[in-house]
Every structure is written in C-alpha cells, then in structure tokens.
Amino acid sequence: MHNQVTRRIPRYILIFLLPVLALACRLSIPGNAPAEPVEVIKTVVVTLEVASAVGDVQVQPAAPLTVIEGSEPLVELYALANPAVVNITIFSEQNNEVVPASQGSGFVYDTLGNIVTNAHVVHGAQDVEVTFSDGTGRSAEIVGLDLNSDLAVVRVDDLPEGVGPLSLGNMADLAVGQTVVAIGNPFGLEGTLTRGVISSLGRTIPALTVFSIPQSIQTDAAINPGNSGGPLLNMQGQVIGVNAQIETDGLTRSNLGVGFAIPVSIVRHVVPDLIESGKHNWPWLGVQGGDVTPLLVEAMQLPVDNGAYISNVLSDGPSASSGLQGAEQTVTIRGRRQDVGGDVIVAINDQPVTSFDDLLVYIALQSAPGDEVRLRVLRQGDYVDLVVKLEERPASLNVFPQP
C-alpha cells in the first residue's frame, strides 16, 4: 500500500495501475450485503456556476452561510450546515425481496430538492430513501450519475420546512493547512461532524472507470464508511469537496488519517449537467503517460525538466491521427528501465503544461468533446505544434467495479 496517492508515477488519461484505495462509503447493512468496502483499480486520466435554470424554474445560487464569531465556531457551523446534510439508504433486490443494502451521505444542492452524493453510493440501487437531520424521510429518484467523477444527483419532491441548500466554495480560496469539517453518517451514525485540515491539494484519485479525478482534496478529517457523498466544508460552511475515498492498509475499513474529497471544481462542472440531462459528457485525448522525471531527462537528453510525457497513443483514440507519438523503445539507465522516444507536451492552447496533471485538468475542465486543442510538443530536441480534435470518452470504458 502506498502512503500517498500521487507520486512521480505514470498518470494517464487512460490508465491501468493497481494499488488499493477504498471508497469511503457504501456502508453495507449487516445481513443484506457484503461488509467489505468496494475497492477500485487505482487509475489516473479530467468553473461553471450552478445552473441558472432547471426547466421553467429559476434557481439562484445559495447564499454563503454566515458562521457567528465566538468561542464555539464549530457549534455555529454545525447548527447551520447539518440540516442540509442527509442520510441516504439504498435498497436492492436480494433473494427476490427488496431490502436495505447500504447507506451513505449527501447534501442539499438547491431549493428544487436536488441532493448531491457519490455515484458509488447509489449506483445499482432499486430504490433510494433520504433521511434529514430532523428524522424526516423522503423517497428519492436518481436524477443522474457520472462514474467518471463519482458524482450523482438524487431528488426529493419537497424539502422539509427550514431546510435549504449549502453554497459552494471556490478552489482558489483553498490552502494546505486550512481547517475543514466533514459532516456525514459514518457507520450509519447520522449527523456526525469531524474536523481536520486540508492535508494536500491537487491529488489525482481513481474514478469508477479507467479514468481518474484530478484536483482532489486530501484531508485528515475522519472519513469512514457511510461518509461518502457528504460535504467537506470550509469554516464559512461552504462545500469545497464531496467526501469519497480513504487510503487503507488493506486490513481495516476505518480511517487512517488520509481521506479524499472530489473537488468543488468538479462539482461545479458536472452537477448542473446531471440535473439537466442526467449525464455529463467528458472529453478525452486518448493517450497514456506521466510526468517528466530526472531519469527521463537523462535517458532522452531533454532540454526541459518538466512537462507531460506521452508513453502511448491509443490507436482508436482522437490523438491517433494527429501525429502525436508515444514511446519507441525501452532502455536501462542506472539499472532502471525507462520508456523513451515519446513526445513531451509543454503547452496546450498556449497554457504551460508542467506535469501530466496539468494536461488532465485542462482537458477535463476547460475543454469539451468536439473542441480542437493545440499541443506544443518537444520531439527530438525540436518543438512541434499539433492539433487534436477531442472526442467523448467511450462508454465502453465506463465499467463500475463491483464488490
């Protein structure tokens, strides 16, 4: 088990790596479903405002919560935020009977009853029920889910009196060391608050497909099975992430101080589409690769120290006809094997690319299927400009790993 999710390891727009990272939820209900959390293949592939209208109903972004200054700011924050955090119970068919199978968390997104959670919380559900902090229960329908971001939206017909949406924060305001709070239902214990800090920013974590989720937030706030789908909040009560995964040692399902939340940048990008059409269409470049490393610089005698190295161009991907080139051979340098000969991308649409994550984030958050992107490529000491027309990620790669 790796101690960190991101190192100088190959990261891909399409990837096949194998360490263990457990989904923080679905807390299985004993006697009805396997007790072990789902484990996913660890892979690596990528701001819109809240939708202004849904149907004929105008939706206004929620106003930020105002946390009262005082000796107990967490008490004030909890009182304001907790009513918008829900417990989600999943029902599935077992032995010809629909029974409670697992549970997770979620939070109210707008006044129309839309609730954000993780895709892995509700994927495959026969029925969904939502319970609010005052004990009020509602049946919910799945509006949309996206396996590539592990986000989903469920909707109730109406919200209990006094319950309103949480507002969304901004990635630009986040910093390592910042105090954060998670509210959710670990092990089914409703309305649990845990406090920690942002341990790191810019992590890349596995999605429920062969692609990955960039810009993710690492925190030491306790996240356990049942927390998935709940909000990670700043001290203003704004959602900065959706709690999703925990690092494990393979022996325990409990928190080890390393948890991950899907970033608010992805939430802003995906959730409005899920509400409007039930899905989000992601672009892809169709390559595999990783960061430029000192070993690669030595092996290829590169004149740069960073960039996105392309090790493979998929034959059926959008880059195949662009002239982008992958590795040609493998050499041994100081006893270590290294693929060489691939292109190094140093800019996309004139935006500098210093790591493979830079490429992932640009493709995911600043591009759409059908867009043309211009790549500045270093090849054999010369710079070459290539144009690639992005395509939609193939549905054949969106395979949810079953427990």
Q: Which CATH architecture of the largest domain would you pick?
A: Beta Barrel
Radius of gyration: 22 Å
Strand content: 35-45%
Instruction: Say what the CATH topology of the largest domain is.
Output: Thrombin, subunit H
Oligomeric grouping of the chains: single chain
Mean pLDDT: 84
Q: What's the CATH C level of the largest domain?
A: Mainly Beta
What is the domain tally? Answer: 2
Largest sheet: 6 strands, antiparallel, barrel
Layout of strands and helices, then pairs:
Layout: E1 20-23, E2 27-28, E3 39-41, E4 53-54, E5 57-58, H1 73-81, E6 85-94, E7 97-108, E8 114-117, H2 119-122, E9 127-131, E10 137-146, E11 151-155, E12 179-184, E13 192-206, E14 212-219, E15 231-233, E16 239-246, E17 259-263, H3 264-277, E18 283-284, E19 287-291, H4 294-300, E20 308-313, E21 329-333, E22 336-340, E23 344-348, E24 351-352, H5 356-365, E25 372-379, E26 382-389, E27 391-392
Antiparallel strand pairs: 1-3, 1-16, 2-7, 4-5, 6-7, 6-9, 7-8, 8-11, 9-10, 10-11, 12-13, 12-15, 13-14, 14-17, 15-16, 16-17, 18-27, 19-20, 20-23, 21-22, 23-24, 23-25, 25-26
What would you note in describing this structure?
The protein has 403 residues and is mostly beta strands. The protein has two domains: 20-277, Thrombin, subunit H (Beta Barrel), CATH 2.40.10; 283-397, Pdz3 Domain (Roll), CATH 2.30.42.10. Helix content is 11%, strand content 38%. It is built from five helices and 27 strands. It has helices spanning 73-81, 119-122, 264-277, 294-300, 356-365; strands at 20-23, 27-28, 39-41, 53-54, 57-58, 85-94, 97-108, 114-117, 127-131, 137-146, 151-155, 179-184, 192-206, 212-219, 231-233, 239-246, 259-263, 283-284, 287-291, 308-313, 329-333, 336-340, 344-348, 351-352, 372-379, 382-389, 391-392. A hairpin with a 5-residue loop joins β9 and β10 (137-146). It is elongated and about 65 Å long. Mean pLDDT is 84; it is low at 1-20 and 31-60.
